[in-house]
Amino acid sequence: MRPVGNRFTSAEDDFIRTNCGSMSNRELSVCLARSVRAIDSRKRKLGIASWKIRPFTEEEDQIIRDGFGGSSVPIANQLNRAPSVIRQHAIRLGLGKWKRPLRDFRQYKISKIARRDGKYRRIPEHRNVVEQNIGRELTSVERVHHIDGKKINNTIDNLFLCANDSAHHKAHHSITKLLSSLLERGIICFDRNGGVYRLCEINN
User: Fold this and answer.
1) Contact 19/28 with Cβ under 8 angstroms?
2) Is-above-0.85 flag for pTM?
3) Which of 115, 122, 121, 107 is nearest to 154 (CA)?
C-alpha cells in the first residue's frame, strides 16, 4: 500500500537520487509505479534538475561510437546508463538515429510466429511463451512480468501475466517497497564508492 497522500518514501527518494543520472523520468516512473509528472515534481523538490544527465566522458563517447550499429543495451549496461540515454547521446555525437535490432528489442528475445495467411508476426518470446501456455493471444494491454528480473529467462515458471501496465508497475514497485526492510536486515547494503546497492557479505 502507498503511504498516506501518495507521499514518496525515503527509499524512493534514495532510488531517484541514485538513478537520476542514468535513467529518464519515464524509466524512473516505471520502476517506482509513479507518473512521469510525479517523478519530475519530486526531483524538483529534491533539488535535482530534471534535465541533468551525468556528463559523458571522451572514453564513453568512443565506446558509443565503436558500438554504434549494434544493440545499445550492452553499451548501456557497460556505462551504467539507460539505453534511451545512450541512443539520445549517439544523435548528439552525430551518429544518427540508433536502430534497435528486432531480435534484441529492449533485451527481449524475439519469436517469429507463422500466421494463417502464410506471413509471420514477430513478438517478444516471453509473450509467446505465455500465449502458448494459456492457449490464446495476449491483448494489447496485457503485460508479462519476469519474476527474477532477467529478461532472457523466458521459462513459464519465471513469467507472470499482468492485466495491464498498472498491474505490471505494481509488480516492479513491490520490490522497491522492500528496500528499507532489506537494508535494516543487512541483506543488502549501499556501496557509496560505486553508488549502487549490493548484497551484503553474510558470515556463517
Assistant:
1) yes
2) no
3) 107
